[in-house]
Structure formats: structure tokens, C-alpha cells
Amino acid sequence: MHTNATSATEGGASKMPEQAPEHSPEQAPEQARFERQLDQGIPIESADWMPAAYRKTLIRQISQHAHSEIVGMLPEGNWLTRAPTLERKSILLAKVQDEAGHGLYLYSAAETLGVTRDAMTLDLLARRAKYSSIFNYPTLSWADIGAIGWLVDGAAIINQIPLCHCSYGPYARAMVRICKEESFHQRQGFAIMTVLARGTREQQEMAQDALNRWWWPVLMMFGPPDHESTNSDQSMRWGIKLHSNDELRQRMVDQTVPQAQFLGLSIPDEQLAWNEARGRYDYGEIDWDEFRRVVNGDGPCNEERLAARQRAWDEGAWVREALKAHAQKQATAVAAA
Ligand code: BYC
Questions:
Q1: pLDDT, position 27
Q2: Backbone torsions φ then ψ of 282, nearest 5 degrees
Q3: Atom 10 of ligand 1 has which residue's CA nearest to it?
Q4: What confidence category does residue 98 fall into, taking pLDDT thresholds of 50, 70 and 90?
Q5: Bridge partners of residue 168, in order along the sequence
Q6: DSSP letters spanning 220-247
């Protein structure tokens, strides 16, 4: 089995296409065509020429996005055996399976850029690749499943709808279906919160406690503040990102406050206030030290999440071997025919 230990984003992964450095005189016509495509909103496809740095940025972002979907199955999977009813269990099972599907579409989209899924996975396991900070927080009660659907999937939709129009065709197309499924996920989370918020005092307290714990980490999902976002400027020029981190975070706050009011829950932010002049909500300071700690491996569940992915990789070795043997057998049969 191929277990390339080099980094996908450093170009060490197998099959990474050879490409001359950006802006070399020989590449000027291709560079001009690439820029024209961006200007005219024509998607860049995998066979098109693209600057090496554009390819590298896409591999970084799409693979991290894929890893997030797969690691994101773990906190929710934790409640599959403890869902309160058969109906809730079936819905949660479908949602977790959807996340697996999202991971697969995204790994496939990244593979169109010439990187292998094995190389991407090994980057995750070696901590060279990131995944969303949000999945390093534990799911302590059933209300957390409601909060994840409502808030985490809510944030995902706000962040990901624009990606349906990003400049790289395979990524944009993968996002269309993902966003449709995320909408269902968000509604199932809101439905859980609605039941709890209208339930007994104990259920209301569970819902409030979940909101208290998830609110700030959800706002961190959108990434560092714009002035600290190292990739944003270039990614926005390339049409990979269409809005800044702070703009999307603000949309999340503005969208969620009325939903919390509807539920009768209070957002744990004393500085939250409607700003008439801006026509948006002002909100309090995010603990960016916590964000950096969690991204750098020191969140409540980082070790547990990576250990689970490592176990899945090790225990899945025989499946990968079997698939490879099957593919070789098929190829031999076709060649012989
Ligand atoms: N967590 O320059 P910046 C989901 C990193 S899946 C960890 O602003 P960029 C869901 C960033 O990678 C959720 N790391 O970066 C799944 C960069 O480091 P590197 C995932 C973060 O890429 C299952 C550095 O910080 N969604 O919702 O321009 C169930 C500087 O940041 C985070 C996606 O992946 C973070 N929160 O913008 C339910 C969407 N934020 O890579 C739900 C696609 C930043 O240079 N990705 N970093 O070493 C994006 O839209 C962008 O990559 C981000 C960050 C907005 C996340």
C-alpha cells in the first residue's frame, strides 16, 4: 500500500504535477489566461494551467476542510448510542454519514489537484495539516448535539455557501451538495434545541449550558481576525475566499441572535448589543489565546481526536490492501481481454 510520508502541501505527495515557477516568462500566456478566467468568473478546472501557489493553497484548504468533516463525525458519533429516541438516533446516524460523504467529496476534489488521499491523511496524522478547531471540544450532553447542528452547521453554511461560487470548479461543485445537506443538519439541530427550550426546567438548563459552551468556539470557526489572517488577501484575490473571516463571523452573530431569542436562550456575551448605526450587532472580544492553543494542539480533545483517526488508519490498512489487490486483478483481467 502506498504510504507516502511526505507532505501533500509541500509538493512531496506522489503525482504532484510538474510546473514551472509562477510568473516565469514561458508561463506568461498561461498566467494571463488564468487571470482572465478569474476576472470573467470562469471556473478553473483541474486540467487548466494554474500557478503553483494557487494549487498549493487549494490543496491546503480543501484537505483541511475534508479532515474537518471526518474528524467532525467524532463528537456526534459519541451520542449515537445514547440518542433519546429511535427517531433521533436515525436522524443523527444519517447526519454523521453525510459528514463522511462530505469528507469523501472533498478528498476527491483535492485529488483533482494531483495529491493523493493517503498523503493528505498522513499529513493530518503527522500534524502537518489542520482541521477545524471546533471539533476539539467535547459533547457532554444531548443538548450539545442540538447546539452543534444549530450553531456549528449554521456557521458551516455561512462559511460554505460562498464556496459554491469559488474559482476552482471541482471544489465549488462539491460544495453545492454539501451545503444542501448542511441545511438539513442545521434544521435538525435547531429542532432539538426547540424541544429542549420548550421542555422542563432541566432541559432548558441543558440547552442554555450547551449554548454557553459552544458560542465562543463557534465564532472562532471563522478563523483569526482579518488583520491576523495570513491567507485571506491572496485567497480573496484568487476567488478562493469571497468574504473575509470577520465579515462571515459578523453574519453568524446577526443571524443567530434572533434565533436564540426565539428559543428563549441568552447568548453568553454581556457586550452583545444592536448597533443602530451599523445595522448589525456589536459583540464582545473573542479569546484568541484559546483559539491559538486549540489550533496548535492543546484543546480539550485534540489528542483523543487524532488518536481516533490514527486508529482508523491502522485498522483500515487491510481494506486499502484489499481494494488495491482488487483493482490490480481488474486491470489484469481487462488487459488480458
Ligand atoms: N481551525 O489565514 P487564515 C464543518 C488556520 S467543517 C483550525 O484566515 P484561511 C462541519 C488556517 O488554516 C468546518 N485552523 O486561513 C463538519 C491558517 O493556518 P495554515 C471546516 C484554523 O484558510 C462536520 C491559519 O489558521 N470548514 O463545518 O484563509 C460537521 C490562519 O488563518 C481555523 C472549512 O474548512 C480554525 N477554525 O481561512 C459539521 C471551510 N481558522 O493553514 C460541520 C473551508 C483558521 O496557513 N475553509 N485556521 O497553516 C475556509 O473557509 C478557510 O480555510 C478558513 C480559514 C475560513 C477556515
A1: 77
A2: -85, 145
A3: 69
A4: very high
A5: 44
A6: HTT-S-GGG-TTHHHHHHTTS-SS-HHH
Closest ligand 1 atom to 235 CA: 28
Is 57 near ligand 1, meaning CB less than 6 Å away? no
Helix ranges, 78-168 (H): 86-111, 117-125, 142-147, 153-160
pLDDT tens per residue across span 201-228? 999 999 999 999 999 999 999 999 999 9
User: What pLDDT was estimated at residue 3?
Assistant: 36
Q: Which pLDDT value is given to residue 15?
A: 41
Backbone angles phi, psi at 44, to 5 degrees: -85, 130
Distance 45 CA to ligand 1 centre (A): 23
Task: Report yes or no: 168 and 44 within 8 Å, Cβ to Cβ.
Answer: yes
Q: How far is the CA of 313 from the centre of ligand 1 (A)?
A: 23
Choice from 231, 294, 296 to test ligand 1 binding pocket (greatest atom count within 8 A of CB): 231
Closest ligand 1 atom, residue 68 Cα: 6
Nearest to residue 51, comparing CAs of 37, 31, 33, 65?
31
Residue 236 CA, ligand 1 centroid: distance in Å: 14
Has residue 18 got a pLDDT over 70?
Answer: no
Rounded Cα–Cα distance for residues 97 and 212 (Å): 27
Best residue for ligand 1 mutational test, from 10, 54, 65 (most atoms within 8 Å of Cβ): 65
**Which residue puts its alpha carbon closest to atom 53 of ligand 1?**
223
Contact 147, 185 (CB under 8 A): no
Global pTM reads: 0.93
Give the pLDDT of residue 7. Answer: 60
Residue minimizing CA distance to atom 39 of ligand 1? 65
Tell me: the pLDDT tens digits for 126-160? 999 999 999 999 999 999 999 999 999 999 999 99
> Taking all residues of the chain, what is their mean pLDDT, rounded to a whole number?
93
| Category of 279 on φ-ψ map: left (φ > 0), alpha (ψ -120 to 50) or beta | left
